[in-house]
Amino acid sequence: MKRMNNAHIRRSFARDFSQLALLMIITFIFAACGGGGGGDAGQTPPDSTDDGSGNITTSTELIDQALADGRLDPESALLYKAFATFNDPRLPAEFTGDVSGVVDPDFLWEANDNFDTLSVETQETLAPFLIPPMYSGSWWDLQQNMQGTATLNAAATDAPCNPLRSNCPLLTTWKYIAGTNVNVWYQERYESADLVKAMQVVTLMEAVWPDLTAYMGAAPLPDRGGSLIAYEGPDTKLDIALVDMGPLGTTYPSFALKSCGNASTYILLNRTADVGPTVVHEFMHSIQFSLDVHECLTTDYKTLMESTANWAVNRIFGTSNQWEHQHIYAYTDDITVPLLYEAPPIRPYGAYLFPLYLTEAESPDAVKQAWSLAASYSQSQVIENVTDLDRVWPQFAARLWNQPPLDKFSQWDGISKQVRSGMDTINLDLAGKQYEEWIVTPDDLSGLSAHIFHVVFHDPSIRTAGFFNGFTYRLAFEDVPELGQIVKAAELTPEQRLGAHLHALVKIDGVWENTLRDWTDVPYVLFPIDLPGPKVQEVLLVFTNSSSDIDSSVQYTGLPSHFWLTNMPWASSWKGSADFRSTDDGVVENFRATDLRFELSMPQLQPLLEAPDPDADLQMIPYQLTAGSAIWDISGTDSNGCSYDGSGATPLATGLFPNQLMLYSFIRSGPAVHGFILNGFDQNPPAEFPVTVTCPDGQGGSTTDVDSWGLATFWLSAIPGDSSSAMSSNGLQISGTGADAIGTSVSGNWQLQVVP
Question: Based on the domain organization, do 372 and 277 belong to the same domain?
Answer without folding.
Answer: yes
